[in-house]
Structure formats: structure tokens, C-alpha cells
Protein: ABC transporter permease
Amino acid sequence: MLAFLVRRLLTLALTAWLATLVVFAVLEAIPGDPALVMLGTSAQPEAVAALRAQMGLDRPWPVRYAGWVGGMLHGDFGTSLTYARPVAGLVADRLAITLPLAGLALLLSAGIAIPLGLFAAGRQGRAGDWAVMAFGQMGIAVPGFWFAILLILLFSVRLGWFSAGGFPGWEAGAAPALKALLLPAVALALPEAAILARITRTAALDTLREEYVRTAVAKGLPRRVVLRRHVLPNALIPVATILGLQFSFLVAGAVVVENVFTLPGLGRLLYQAIGQHDLIVVQSVVVLLAVTVVAVNALVDIACAAIDPRPRVTA
Structure:
């Protein structure tokens, strides 16, 4: 187990370093002068030169890359030129919205998908199974922002039950804040629930073919009891793996949905920083999202190895 853990941690560190290198290289390859873009083409050359020096663009790229990575390792993500605030503080403020949004979406995804997957497995080849499979196909095919627009049209414009966007802040109370996050969470959860329902169905069908399940059925146990007591606990191992991966995807995938609902989360911060050519913020947020995905994947691997030691043999 120790060797497996060391390999996963080394892989995590290497992947995180490669992520910083790729993000920095891509932003470096973008044509144009960021300082000139921010100030406008009519700006004085002295002002452009001063901004370039403030942004560190007058230094060689290896020096800038080393300073950027070294600062992140010490918790210093730089200072946003647009907001005139440390990037770490901006990110912390926005994560207070994005993380609860992703967590709520994950709960909704599991709450929808696991019962549907078990329902479909218990009715394989019948109308209920086909209905769940159709839901899975639709959820996979339709992107989350379309669900977001449809939810706004139905529940905000037509019914008036929810606000079409915005966030009152946690200081207004948990109930108004969670209400503002509910529709975005549903929009994020539906595509993930469609994938998870299909995986739950497949895992449950595999478990139903096991000898101990056949024995339980032969003893006369009702099918719902067999599904709940014998099938669900064993089918949850692959489902838990996908849930862990989905959380990181939900954090990274909130960029579009947050902009549809005008939520001041991490995704909206990234969108605004791209529009304002605030490269410090763009670099830091993209790397944070990439490292989050890689770290959650590593934690899922480690958790699965602790539960089931078989993957360690070939990992």
C-alpha cells in the first residue's frame, strides 16, 4: 500500500507541474501584448511600458514562470490588475459559492441517479428500463447550459418561483443562498446524473448475476429487498468512484452555468478575467481547476485501493 501511495502522490505532483507548464505556455503563445490590450491602442508608450513592468512582461519567460510557480507554492498567486487584490483572496471568496454549488449538484446527481439505476436494473428489458436509458441518452446529449436556460424559462420566467440569477450572499441566510443555488445545481446535476444512472444500472446488473444474489432470490426474498440489501452495497463501489470524479468535473464545469445564472463564483471570475485580459487571474484559476481535478482523481484511486486492494497489483 505504501508503494502504491507514493506512486500516486508522485504522479499527482508531476501532473500538477505539467498543468502549470501547459497553462503558462498557452497564454504565452496568445498573440498580442496584454498590457496594450488592457490600456487600449491609444495608450501612451510610457504607460504601456510601466504596465508591462508591473505585470512582469519585461522579464524573460523562464524567470516569470519560476516566479509564478514559486509564488503559488508559498500561497502567493499574485495580484489581480483588474481588482487590485491578491488573487488568493479573490479565489477564496469565489470558492465560497462554487464549492457549495458543486456539492449540492453532486448530492442531487446521486439522489437522482442511484434510485433510477437500481430501478432500471430491476426491470431490465421492460418499459421502466427503456425510460431510464432514454433519460440517460438525453442527459448526455444536452449540455448543462441548455438545461440552465430551460430551468430559467420555466421556474423563473413562467412560474416565478426562483430568481433568474444573482446570489444574495451567505450573510443573508442559508435558506436564500441555497435557493439561489438550487436551479444552477440542478442544471449541473442532470447531465452527471444521466451518466451515473447508466453506470449504476450496469453495476447493479453485474451484481445481480452473482451467485449470492441468485441464492437470495431462490430463498424467496422480495426483489426490492434483494436490490436494497445485496445489490446496492456492492454496486456502490464503482458508483462511488464516479461520484468522486464527478465532483471535480462539477467544480470545473461550473464556468458556463455560473455565467448563465450570473453567480459570482470561480467560473464567473475566470470568464471575467479572460474578457479583461487579467492573465494573473486566468493562470491561477485554470491551474487551480486542473490541480483540483488531478487531486480528486488521485484521492479516488487511493480510496478505492484502500477498499479493494486488487487495483494495487497492476497500478
Remarks:
- The CA atoms of residues 188 and 279 lie 27 Å apart.
- The chain has two domains: 34-76, 88-314.
